[in-house]
Amino acid sequence: MNGWSELDRFLQTDPRDVGCTEAMRLLHVYVDLVAQAADAAQRYPGIAAHLRACGPCSEDFDGLLAAVRETP
Amino acid sequence: MAESVDRESAEWLRDLTGGQREAAQARLHAELLRIARGEVRRRAERLRVSGPELDDLTHQAAADALLAIIAKLAQFRGDSRFATWAYKFVIFEVSTKLGRHFWRNPTVSLEAEEWDRLPHRYGFDPAQETESREFVTAVRRAVDDELTERQRRIFVAIVVNGVPLDALVVELSTNRNAIYKTLFDARRKLRATLVANGYIDPNTSRRS
Protein backbone atom coordinates (compact mmCIF):
# COMPACT_ATOMS: atom_id res chain seq x y z
CA MET A 1 0.00 0.00 0.00
CA ASN A 2 1.52 3.35 -0.98
CA GLY A 3 1.28 6.60 0.93
CA TRP A 4 -1.65 7.92 -1.10
CA SER A 5 -3.86 4.91 -0.45
CA GLU A 6 -2.91 5.04 3.21
CA LEU A 7 -3.94 8.70 3.34
CA ASP A 8 -7.13 7.87 1.42
CA ARG A 9 -8.06 5.30 4.08
CA PHE A 10 -7.77 8.02 6.70
CA LEU A 11 -9.67 10.64 4.69
CA GLN A 12 -12.64 8.42 3.82
CA THR A 13 -15.68 9.22 5.95
CA ASP A 14 -18.72 7.07 6.58
CA PRO A 15 -22.05 8.93 6.69
CA ARG A 16 -23.30 6.38 9.25
CA ASP A 17 -20.60 7.54 11.72
CA VAL A 18 -22.48 8.74 14.83
CA GLY A 19 -19.58 10.70 16.35
CA CYS A 20 -17.91 10.44 19.74
CA THR A 21 -20.77 11.60 21.97
CA GLU A 22 -23.28 9.02 20.76
CA ALA A 23 -20.72 6.23 20.51
CA MET A 24 -19.52 6.87 24.06
CA ARG A 25 -23.09 7.17 25.37
CA LEU A 26 -23.80 3.62 24.23
CA LEU A 27 -20.32 2.12 24.54
CA HIS A 28 -21.25 -0.06 27.52
CA VAL A 29 -24.22 -1.52 25.64
CA TYR A 30 -22.10 -2.12 22.54
CA VAL A 31 -19.30 -3.75 24.55
CA ASP A 32 -21.71 -6.10 26.34
CA LEU A 33 -23.06 -7.22 22.96
CA VAL A 34 -19.54 -7.83 21.64
CA ALA A 35 -18.61 -9.71 24.82
CA GLN A 36 -21.69 -11.92 24.34
CA ALA A 37 -20.67 -12.56 20.72
CA ALA A 38 -23.85 -10.82 19.52
CA ASP A 39 -23.65 -8.88 16.26
CA ALA A 40 -23.12 -5.46 17.78
CA ALA A 41 -22.01 -3.88 14.49
CA GLN A 42 -25.21 -4.97 12.75
CA ARG A 43 -27.35 -3.60 15.57
CA TYR A 44 -25.38 -0.37 15.87
CA PRO A 45 -23.77 0.29 12.45
CA GLY A 46 -23.20 3.95 13.29
CA ILE A 47 -21.12 3.05 16.33
CA ALA A 48 -19.19 0.42 14.38
CA ALA A 49 -18.43 3.03 11.70
CA HIS A 50 -17.29 5.47 14.35
CA LEU A 51 -15.01 2.99 16.11
CA ARG A 52 -13.33 2.19 12.78
CA ALA A 53 -12.45 5.86 12.28
CA CYS A 54 -11.89 7.35 15.74
CA GLY A 55 -8.63 6.32 17.44
CA PRO A 56 -9.47 7.55 20.97
CA CYS A 57 -12.96 6.01 21.03
CA SER A 58 -11.58 2.78 19.59
CA GLU A 59 -8.97 2.78 22.36
CA ASP A 60 -11.72 3.19 24.98
CA PHE A 61 -13.70 0.38 23.34
CA ASP A 62 -10.66 -1.94 23.48
CA GLY A 63 -10.08 -1.00 27.12
CA LEU A 64 -13.66 -1.56 28.19
CA LEU A 65 -13.89 -4.86 26.34
CA ALA A 66 -10.64 -6.02 27.94
CA ALA A 67 -11.94 -5.00 31.37
CA VAL A 68 -15.18 -6.93 30.87
CA ARG A 69 -13.39 -10.02 29.55
CA GLU A 70 -10.91 -10.02 32.43
CA THR A 71 -13.69 -9.85 35.01
CA PRO A 72 -15.18 -13.17 36.07
CA MET B 1 -35.20 1.61 34.71
CA ALA B 2 -35.74 0.73 31.07
CA GLU B 3 -35.04 -2.98 31.21
CA SER B 4 -34.93 -5.69 33.86
CA VAL B 5 -31.47 -6.03 35.30
CA ASP B 6 -29.46 -9.18 35.88
CA ARG B 7 -28.99 -10.45 39.43
CA GLU B 8 -25.47 -9.13 39.92
CA SER B 9 -26.42 -5.66 38.68
CA ALA B 10 -29.48 -5.62 40.93
CA GLU B 11 -27.23 -6.47 43.90
CA TRP B 12 -24.88 -3.60 43.08
CA LEU B 13 -27.81 -1.17 42.88
CA ARG B 14 -29.31 -2.45 46.11
CA ASP B 15 -26.00 -2.28 47.97
CA LEU B 16 -24.99 1.14 46.64
CA THR B 17 -28.29 2.71 47.67
CA GLY B 18 -29.05 0.75 50.85
CA GLY B 19 -27.85 0.78 54.42
CA GLN B 20 -24.52 -0.82 53.48
CA ARG B 21 -23.67 1.80 50.87
CA GLU B 22 -20.28 2.72 52.34
CA ALA B 23 -19.09 -0.86 52.20
CA ALA B 24 -20.48 -1.20 48.68
CA GLN B 25 -18.72 1.99 47.59
CA ALA B 26 -15.43 0.69 49.01
CA ARG B 27 -15.93 -2.56 47.10
CA LEU B 28 -16.73 -0.67 43.90
CA HIS B 29 -13.69 1.57 44.39
CA ALA B 30 -11.46 -1.50 44.67
CA GLU B 31 -12.97 -2.83 41.43
CA LEU B 32 -12.43 0.51 39.66
CA LEU B 33 -8.84 0.64 40.86
CA ARG B 34 -8.26 -2.85 39.49
CA ILE B 35 -9.75 -1.85 36.12
CA ALA B 36 -7.74 1.41 36.01
CA ARG B 37 -4.53 -0.51 36.70
CA GLY B 38 -5.35 -3.00 33.98
CA GLU B 39 -6.09 -0.21 31.53
CA VAL B 40 -2.83 1.69 32.10
CA ARG B 41 -0.97 -1.62 31.85
CA ARG B 42 -2.73 -2.31 28.54
CA ARG B 43 -1.71 1.13 27.23
CA ALA B 44 1.73 1.03 28.87
CA GLU B 45 3.82 0.72 25.71
CA ARG B 46 2.44 3.95 24.29
CA LEU B 47 2.50 5.91 27.55
CA ARG B 48 5.19 8.42 28.38
CA VAL B 49 4.35 8.25 32.06
CA SER B 50 5.47 5.65 34.58
CA GLY B 51 6.28 4.96 38.23
CA PRO B 52 4.64 6.96 41.02
CA GLU B 53 3.11 9.42 38.53
CA LEU B 54 1.29 6.61 36.76
CA ASP B 55 0.20 5.14 40.08
CA ASP B 56 -1.16 8.55 41.11
CA LEU B 57 -3.03 8.89 37.81
CA THR B 58 -4.53 5.42 38.32
CA HIS B 59 -5.77 6.25 41.82
CA GLN B 60 -7.21 9.58 40.68
CA ALA B 61 -9.03 7.88 37.80
CA ALA B 62 -10.62 5.33 40.16
CA ALA B 63 -11.60 7.98 42.73
CA ASP B 64 -13.10 10.34 40.12
CA ALA B 65 -14.93 7.47 38.43
CA LEU B 66 -16.47 6.44 41.76
CA LEU B 67 -17.75 9.97 42.38
CA ALA B 68 -19.23 10.15 38.86
CA ILE B 69 -20.89 6.75 39.21
CA ILE B 70 -22.48 7.63 42.54
CA ALA B 71 -23.71 10.95 41.14
CA LYS B 72 -25.21 9.24 38.07
CA LEU B 73 -26.49 6.05 39.64
CA ALA B 74 -30.10 6.96 38.89
CA GLN B 75 -29.19 7.18 35.20
CA PHE B 76 -28.28 3.48 34.99
CA ARG B 77 -30.98 2.09 32.73
CA GLY B 78 -30.17 -1.59 32.91
CA ASP B 79 -29.35 -1.77 29.21
CA SER B 80 -26.02 -3.41 30.04
CA ARG B 81 -24.49 -5.13 33.05
CA PHE B 82 -23.92 -2.66 35.86
CA ALA B 83 -20.23 -3.56 35.93
CA THR B 84 -19.81 -2.67 32.22
CA TRP B 85 -21.61 0.64 32.75
CA ALA B 86 -19.45 1.43 35.79
CA TYR B 87 -16.16 0.37 34.17
CA LYS B 88 -16.88 2.77 31.31
CA PHE B 89 -16.45 5.67 33.73
CA VAL B 90 -12.99 4.61 34.82
CA ILE B 91 -11.84 3.88 31.25
CA PHE B 92 -12.94 7.42 30.28
CA GLU B 93 -11.15 8.86 33.32
CA VAL B 94 -7.92 7.13 32.32
CA SER B 95 -8.22 8.55 28.77
CA THR B 96 -8.93 12.07 30.01
CA LYS B 97 -6.10 12.04 32.53
CA LEU B 98 -3.61 10.73 29.98
CA GLY B 99 -4.69 13.51 27.59
CA ARG B 100 -4.00 16.10 30.29
CA HIS B 101 -0.72 14.48 31.18
CA PHE B 102 0.58 14.80 27.59
CA TRP B 103 1.21 18.53 28.04
CA ARG B 104 3.41 18.10 31.10
CA ASN B 105 6.23 16.97 28.87
CA PRO B 106 5.08 17.44 25.25
CA THR B 107 7.14 15.97 22.43
CA VAL B 108 5.43 18.14 19.84
CA SER B 109 4.10 21.67 19.80
CA LEU B 110 0.97 23.21 18.35
CA GLU B 111 2.92 26.02 16.75
CA ALA B 112 5.54 24.27 14.60
CA GLU B 113 4.21 22.44 11.52
CA GLU B 114 6.12 19.25 10.84
CA TRP B 115 5.11 18.67 7.23
CA ASP B 116 8.39 16.89 6.47
CA ARG B 117 7.30 13.99 8.67
CA LEU B 118 4.03 13.44 6.83
CA PRO B 119 5.36 11.14 4.06
CA HIS B 120 6.98 8.79 6.58
CA ARG B 121 3.76 8.72 8.60
CA TYR B 122 1.87 7.54 5.53
CA GLY B 123 4.38 4.89 4.54
CA PHE B 124 6.63 6.58 1.99
CA ASP B 125 10.15 5.20 1.83
CA PRO B 126 12.86 7.81 2.59
CA ALA B 127 14.30 7.02 -0.87
CA GLN B 128 11.09 8.25 -2.54
CA GLU B 129 12.16 11.87 -2.32
CA THR B 130 10.31 13.15 -5.39
CA GLU B 131 7.09 11.30 -4.54
CA SER B 132 7.29 12.49 -0.93
CA ARG B 133 7.76 16.09 -2.00
CA GLU B 134 4.81 15.89 -4.39
CA PHE B 135 2.70 14.30 -1.62
CA VAL B 136 3.44 17.06 0.86
CA THR B 137 2.90 19.81 -1.71
CA ALA B 138 -0.47 18.43 -2.80
CA VAL B 139 -1.80 17.78 0.70
CA ARG B 140 -0.53 21.10 2.04
CA ARG B 141 -2.09 23.01 -0.85
CA ALA B 142 -5.44 21.29 -0.26
CA VAL B 143 -5.22 22.03 3.46
CA ASP B 144 -4.36 25.69 2.87
CA ASP B 145 -6.96 26.25 0.14
CA GLU B 146 -9.94 24.24 1.38
CA LEU B 147 -10.00 24.15 5.17
CA THR B 148 -11.31 26.78 7.54
CA GLU B 149 -8.82 28.16 10.03
CA ARG B 150 -10.11 25.87 12.79
CA GLN B 151 -10.17 22.80 10.53
CA ARG B 152 -6.62 23.58 9.45
CA ARG B 153 -5.42 24.00 13.03
CA ILE B 154 -6.90 20.69 14.13
CA PHE B 155 -5.76 18.78 11.02
CA VAL B 156 -2.19 20.07 11.35
CA ALA B 157 -2.04 19.35 15.08
CA ILE B 158 -3.33 15.78 14.83
CA VAL B 159 -2.33 14.57 11.39
CA VAL B 160 0.83 16.55 10.66
CA ASN B 161 2.28 17.04 14.14
CA GLY B 162 0.91 13.87 15.75
CA VAL B 163 -0.73 15.47 18.80
CA PRO B 164 -3.09 12.91 20.43
CA LEU B 165 -6.72 13.93 19.98
CA ASP B 166 -7.43 13.77 23.73
CA ALA B 167 -4.45 16.05 24.40
CA LEU B 168 -5.76 18.54 21.86
CA VAL B 169 -9.12 18.47 23.65
CA VAL B 170 -7.36 19.73 26.79
CA GLU B 171 -5.30 22.36 24.99
CA LEU B 172 -8.31 23.81 23.14
CA SER B 173 -10.66 23.50 26.15
CA THR B 174 -13.25 21.61 24.14
CA ASN B 175 -14.50 18.02 23.95
CA ARG B 176 -13.60 14.95 21.93
CA ASN B 177 -16.72 15.09 19.78
CA ALA B 178 -16.13 18.71 18.73
CA ILE B 179 -12.56 17.94 17.63
CA TYR B 180 -13.65 14.74 15.88
CA LYS B 181 -16.47 16.50 14.03
CA THR B 182 -14.13 19.25 12.84
CA LEU B 183 -11.60 16.66 11.68
CA PHE B 184 -14.38 14.61 10.05
CA ASP B 185 -15.45 17.60 7.96
CA ALA B 186 -11.82 18.37 7.11
CA ARG B 187 -11.22 14.78 5.97
CA ARG B 188 -14.27 14.88 3.70
CA LYS B 189 -13.23 18.19 2.12
CA LEU B 190 -9.63 17.15 1.60
CA ARG B 191 -10.58 13.85 0.01
CA ALA B 192 -12.94 15.59 -2.42
CA THR B 193 -10.17 18.01 -3.39
CA LEU B 194 -7.50 15.32 -3.77
CA VAL B 195 -9.90 13.22 -5.85
CA ALA B 196 -10.72 16.23 -8.04
CA ASN B 197 -7.00 16.87 -8.51
CA GLY B 198 -6.37 13.28 -9.54
CA TYR B 199 -4.28 12.17 -6.55
CA ILE B 200 -6.84 9.76 -5.10
CA ASP B 201 -8.99 7.19 -6.89
CA PRO B 202 -12.64 8.05 -6.12
CA ASN B 203 -13.72 4.43 -6.42
CA THR B 204 -11.89 3.06 -3.39
CA SER B 205 -13.79 2.44 -0.19
CA ARG B 206 -12.89 0.98 3.20
CA ARG B 207 -16.41 0.60 4.51
CA SER B 208 -17.56 -2.72 5.83
First-residue to last-residue Cα separation of chain A: 41 Å
Q: State the oligomer.
A: heterodimer
Ends distance of chain B? 34 Å
Shape of chain A: globular
Strand count of chain A: 0
Main beta sheet of chain B: strand number and arrangement?
none
Interface with most residues:
A-B, 42 and 48 residues
- Please mark out the parts of chain A with pLDDT under 50 across 5 or more consecutive residues, or reply none: none
* Mass-distribution shape of chain B: elongated
On the 0 to 100 scale, the average pLDDT of chain A is 95
The description of the largest β-sheet of chain A is: none
Radius of gyration of chain B using CA atoms only: 22 Å
Summarize the structure.
By secondary structure, chain A is mainly alpha-helical.
Task: Tell me about this structure.
The complex is a heterodimer of chains A (72) and B (208). By secondary structure, chain A is mainly alpha-helical. Chain A has one domain. Chain A is 75% helix and 0% strand. Chain A is built from 6 helices and no strands. Chain A has helices spanning 3-11, 19-25, 27-35, 40-43, 45-53, 55-70. Chain B is elongated, with a radius of gyration of 22 Å. Chain B is 65% helix and 0% strand. Chain B has 9 helices and no strands. The model of chain B has no long low-confidence stretch (mean pLDDT 91). Chain B has 2 domains: 7-104, Rna Polymerase Sigma Factor, Chain: A (Orthogonal Bundle); 115-196, Orthogonal Bundle (Arc Repressor Mutant, subunit A), CATH 1.10.10.10.
Q: Which key terms come to mind for this protein?
A:
heterodimer, A: mainly alpha, globular, B: 208 residues, mainly alpha, Rna Polymerase Sigma Factor, Chain: A, Arc Repressor Mutant, subunit A, 2 domains
Tell me the layout of helices and strands:
The complex is a heterodimer of chains A (72) and B (208).
Chain A lengths: L2 H9 L7 H7 L1 H9 L4 H4 L1 H9 L1 H16 L2
Helix pairs in contact in A: 2-5, 3-6, 5-6
Chain B lengths: L6 H11 L3 H22 L8 H21 L10 H20 L16 H4 L7 H18 L2 H12 L4 H7 L4 H21 L12
Helix pairs in contact in B: 1-2, 2-3, 2-4, 3-4, 4-8, 6-9, 7-9
